Amino acid sequence: MTDPWVALEPGTDLAEHVRALRRAHETFTEAGTVPHPVRPVVAASWRRSARAGVGPDGTARVELTDGDLDAYRAEHPLAPVMPLFRELLGSFAADGEHLLAVCDAHGRLLWVEGHPATRRRAARMNFVPGARWAESAVGTNAPGTAVAVGRAVQVFAAEHFVRRVHPWTCAAAPVHDPRTGQVLGAVDITGGDGLAHPHSLGLVQAVARAAESQLALLGPREAAAGTPELAALGRDEALFTVGGRRLRLSRRHSEIMVLLARHPEGLTGDELLCALYEDESVTPVTLRAELARLRRVLGPGLLASRPYRLTVPVGSDVAVVERRLETGAVAAAASAYAGPLLPASQAPAVVRLRQRLADGLRRALIVRRDPDLLADWAHAPWGEDDLEVWRALAAVRPSTAVRARLAALEAELAAPYVPVRDPAGSPSARAPVHARRATSLQRRRP
């Protein structure tokens, strides 16, 4: 095939190809082998889907509804380019009886628009806003596979992993953040066999590139809205966006900014000293020098003293997660959680906040009992040894892989821990990985 990401070569007998794909799909679901004529990109996706525990008779789950969905869409970085998507693809979708869909980086559909009759048909398989169409949830499909592999892809008929999606054809392309290269989501066209043409794949690719160009021109959304923003989750050095500038802060400056953003009323020097340093021998002079350096980094007018405070409101990703948890928007909170707060920080106040935020989200996920949300946490770097979450996941999705991982964690917990000591007699940081994990698990034990 000339382009492996295109579903059909010119001149292909459509009906015969559909029959061949259905036979191949049955062979894979029954025997686990992938025969001709399945494309390599589809075969790889089928295997990933099977490893994730997706069944061919499954269906998508709706995770975000009503106000929860509205709030998440309003804050999503693709919201500013929705008018562009509608301008370039809206008429094409409506006139051709197709659907325009946009998903986030987790495969959750945020917008589904287009021909009314087609929307009603798609709703019967939960192809609706708020539904999760990640590969790990419903197997091979264009938007889910596009965000999984970071490439534009076309999926035709029985190339879809779930049988109820076999009557459909879709083409999707990922949209990247023009500043970081991170996948923000994907733009998709879904409809009938008429989309099984190279032009539909080229179209969504062009629209995705246009969206990235517009995002680059718009600049950071936070700066455009006039509110400085602090991103500190999942990174040791926070990013501060203000006035169109993106500043990477040092670790100590990151800690100070996290604390000041949480205390708009300000903190005294003594309060900051206790919050930042475990060592009581650190003097106020050291702190004042650090704050003077931070003031130069931020620029004039942003950091005041007596008490130390930020002169303008500063939003943060920590506040977004907390706000969503407070309103019960668990799925939206999990989407905003990019990882532990300043994971390398040992500042006492930051450590407490990091633990409180993670524990609050973990408890909400366990209570929610959503298998996809639990799986996202369990497979993240910060959740791979989280025994409570793996137990909760095993209760709602007892697949072979999940049970095996849980058994391994239980065995590690039961194993005796003998710390390795260095020549000076202190516990070594080079203790066996399983021993360090067991210690971590004991701390989490209910």
In words, what does this structure look like?
This protein has 446 residues and is α+β, with helices and mostly antiparallel strands. The chain is built from 19 helices and 13 strands. The strands form four sheets. It has a five-stranded antiparallel β-sheet with strand order 3-2-7-6-5, sandwiched between helices. A four-stranded mixed β-sheet has the order 10-9-8-13. The protein has a two-stranded antiparallel ribbon with strand order 1-4. The longest helix is centred in the middle third of the chain and has 21 residues, at 198-218. Residues 244-310 form the OmpR/PhoB-type domain.
Structural topology:
Layout (H helix, E strand, L loop, with lengths): L13 H18 L8 H12 L9 E2 L3 H10 L6 H14 L3 E6 L4 E6 L1 H8 L7 E2 L2 H4 L3 H8 L3 E4 L12 E8 L6 E9 L6 H21 L2 H5 L3 E3 L7 E4 L2 E4 L2 H12 L6 H8 L7 H15 L4 E2 L4 E2 L4 E2 H10 L3 H7 L11 H21 L2 H9 L7 H10 L3 H15 L18 H12 L2
Parallel strand pairs: 8-13
Antiparallel strand pairs: 1-4, 2-3, 2-7, 5-6, 6-7, 8-9, 9-10, 11-12
Helix pairs in contact: 4-8, 13-14, 13-15, 14-15, 16-17, 17-18, 18-19
Rounded average pLDDT: 86
Distance between the termini: 55 Å
Show unreliable segments: 221-225, 422-446
> How many separate structural domains?
2
Q: Please state the overall shape, judged from the principal axes of the Cα atoms.
A: globular
